[in-house]
User: What shape does this take?
Amino acid sequence: MSDPATLSRDARIAARLNRRYAAERRFKALGFVAVLFSALVLAFLLVTMTANALGGFQRAELRFPIDFASGAMTVDPAQLEGANAMQVLEGAGLKDVVAFAASQSLGDAGAAELPDGAWREVGEALIDDPSRLGGTFQAALPASDDLAAALRKDGQPQLRGLADQLAAQGKLVTAFDWGFLSRGDATGPQDVGIWGALKGSMLTMLVTLLLAFPIGVLAAVYLEEYAPKNRWTDIIEVSINNLAAVPSIIFGLLGLAVFLAIFPNYRSAPLIGGMTLALMTMPVIVISGRNAIKAVPPSIRDAALAVGASRVQTVFHHVLPLALPGILTGTIIGMARALGETAPLLMIGMRAFVASPPDGFTSPATVLPVQIFLWSDEIDRGFVERTSAAIIVLLLFLLVMNGLAIYLRNRFEKRW
Amino acid sequence: MNTLHTLDSIDPKITARNVSVYYGEKRAIDDVSIDISPKYVTAFIGPSGCGKSTFLRTLNRMNDTIAGARVEGDIALDGVDIYKSGMDVVQLRARVGMVFQKPNPFPKSIFENIAYGPRIHGLAASKTELEEIVERSLKRAGLWDEVKDRLTDSGTALSGGQQQRLCIARAIAVEPEVILMDEPCSALDPIATARIEELIDELRGNYAIVIVTHSMQQAARVSQRTAFFHLGKMVEYGKTSDIFTNPREERTKDYITGRYG
Assistant: This one.
């Protein structure tokens, strides 16, 4: 009927078309599987982390009433106004009152599991509200690490009976530990808090941002808009690219050798940590900044120059505002990397045990990832959950930081 | 040939003498001399790559921004050499404005687009004065009626022809003496083009206007003086009517009649 040559040509085209569609479907499926895989990994990580961390945000508490009205302790509420209120309470024998109330309610074995410094939490509650001195105060104090372990069916076997007994009476409970968010590091998992490391991270990141962002942006502007294209700028460009690829521990050594040699008294300080991390972050900002500046259409520069704007006006009125979203993206990446960095900070002493949250940029501090590293190294099982909780805090900090940067980026984003 | 460059009895606005422009080793403009009249629209025509845009950009030193570009010869604005050392390029560009091939409004509001130039040059003493400048410039560019109710809208939201008129208004706002136009209609449709050409005709007399164009019809319509460039040289310069009806040079005639280009 029809020409065999034409038929075979049509058949060839049809077969080829089918192969093309099949290839397209395969590629789409592969891409989908890849996305699915990464989503599952992320979900697994978040779910296990969160499940562990739920325990990390809690602690075992001993609950018992303290009767202040019986007159075991006489303190004038007016004396609790001053700075030395805690000394006043200590002088009045608060420690003994707490210990007595504990042994009354929990028995001697239970009272022995109340840590030495626990009475201070009662003291703080009294200073907050001196009227509590006139009645019965329901104390909720941290149990000892051993008792907390026994409550988890862990640690010393002889304590488990006691733990079960107290728990059955409702005197030993697991409760949300708000103090975790306000305390510093400690030796036992019952007493640790994340605030010290969180504040250290915040201060360090602030120093990093304040140094790396202006220096990085100015370097990018100079290299893109002003520098002549010659051998020297080529060398600088290659050096900056290499700097971005240097392993972070090398920057730590540099911080140790240079910054700590100049400021030997600021070991472990957020100032030095921030300066070290700024060295690491700056090249990332320079590279992304240059790309963002390069992406601004030359016609905008022409337009500004043609109405008589100077080079500086052109850059600051037109080029930088348009490049800012791109620069901020690079800054997010660089800062996120700096926030998660541990190795360089170990070199400059930020792995030291620091019990009190840092007062400022020059007081000893640690940061979140180093704190996680330190806690993960602890023997006490109670630290496992605390470590997960610290990781969640780190991730939330990262989320807030990135959220802020993305918000800023979207605000500055303009179309042309 | 030099005598031919002066066509008019009045003093020229811009005088160029023996101008050569190099990009690195390559010579893009070869020994061009021309007088630009303050009263007329001068058109530069010629095939692509003949150097007409390059020459235009030497007139307000926009070539300074191109790495490796070098200018030889003398270019004077009102008799003052614009390439002499100590010449303030910013002031020069305020006096010699420019409109580009592709409309390039700033990604800011229509008001800000116009106000930017007066503001950086300190032309307005108060906010009301600035608003007057914006209104006057937009009126002169024939855009006021279309945008007066949406001055805060982005300049990039306008149509292509409106954007180009916005760019002309932006150039006018700093009160230049010369306006350079580099193929201002090549990205526009015929109706928008006609609108720009009308505008150029209205602006003539207030400003010296130099326009580079690919379209010979456009040159014939809007200009009174035409210079024909070919391979980096200025082949012929004269009254537009003479160039199009009675060219002296064979090459001009070939180009005009569509033999090449």
